[in-house]
């Protein structure tokens, strides 16, 4: 014989289960690398900014950073050239230092066209560059295409913000994520000066 269900009891179980699931999700979110930190994505694409083409790399980058726990708004899409510099200055200079994104990733504007000036605008705002990260992305990209080395992107730090230029292609962005994701924790702890460097040998 099937016993009648007890609405009150079922409700308690459901509430406790939901509460436990929410608590677990909160705990897991707190354990993510980017917890309590923000990030930003800038897409340099004149055609996307004009609405003539879809932004194909912004959603990939935003999803990656959100998955790592960073509070990341939708990508900022701007025309190539000076608008990229304006977007970077807004985040790195106009924004109060304690509110600036810890991670800023750009995509596009790293080639040889006259208005591909993302690296120049980025470099002038950095206090220290990290060329090894760019070399690593070139190396990864060369596994798929020789044109990977044409990307002129730069990477580096201003204050406690890490900035890196990714290519404008989906393949280049995915290669960049593959390289940087493994190093992201070290990058973050280094610029926040929370690592124990150990003895110098």
UniProtKB/TrEMBL annotation:
GO BP term, example: Mo-molybdopterin cofactor biosynthetic process
Protein name, per record: Molybdopterin adenylyltransferase
The enzyme's E.C. designation: 2.8.1.12
Residue spans crossing the bilayer: none
Enzyme class, broadest EC rank: transferase
MoaB/Mog domain residues: 40-187
PANTHER family in alphabetical order: MOLYBDENUM COFACTOR BIOSYNTHESIS, MOLYBDOPTERIN MOLYBDOTRANSFERASE
Signal peptide: none
Keyword Nucleotidyltransferase listed: yes
GO molecular function: molybdopterin synthase activity; nucleotidyltransferase activity
Classification via Gene3D superfamilies: MoaB/Mog-like domain
Keyword Nucleotidyltransferase annotated: yes
Pathway info: Cofactor biosynthesis; molybdopterin biosynthesis
SMART domains: MoCF_biosynth
Keyword vocabulary terms for this entry: Molybdenum cofactor biosynthesis, Nucleotidyltransferase, Transferase
One Pfam family recorded for the sequence: MoCF_biosynth
């Amino acid at each position: 014989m099937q016993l009648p269900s007890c609405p009150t009891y079922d409700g308690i179980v459901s509430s406790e289960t939901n509460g436990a699931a929410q608590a677990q999700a909160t705990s897991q979110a707190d354990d993510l690398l980017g917890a309590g930190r923000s990030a930003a994505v800038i897409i340099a694409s004149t055609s996307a900014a004009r609405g003539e083409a879809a932004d194909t790399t912004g959603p990939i980058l935003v999803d990656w950073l959100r998955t790592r726990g960073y509070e990341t708004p939708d990508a900022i899409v701007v025309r190539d050239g000076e608008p990229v510099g304006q977007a970077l200055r807004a985040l790195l200079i106009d924004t109060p230092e304690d509110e600036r994104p810890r991670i800023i990733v750009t995509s596009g504007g790293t080639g040889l066209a006259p208005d591909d000036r993302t690296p120049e605008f980025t470099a002038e705002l950095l206090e220290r560059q990290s060329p090894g990260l760019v070399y690593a992305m070139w190396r990864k990209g060369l596994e798929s295409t020789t044109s990977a080395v044409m990307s002129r992107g730069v990477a580096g730090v201003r204050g406690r913000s890490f900035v890196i230029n990714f290519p404008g292609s989906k393949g280049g962005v995915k290669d960049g994520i593959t390289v940087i994701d493994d190093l992201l924790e070290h990058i973050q702890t280094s610029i926040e000066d929370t690592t124990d460097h150990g003895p110098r040998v």
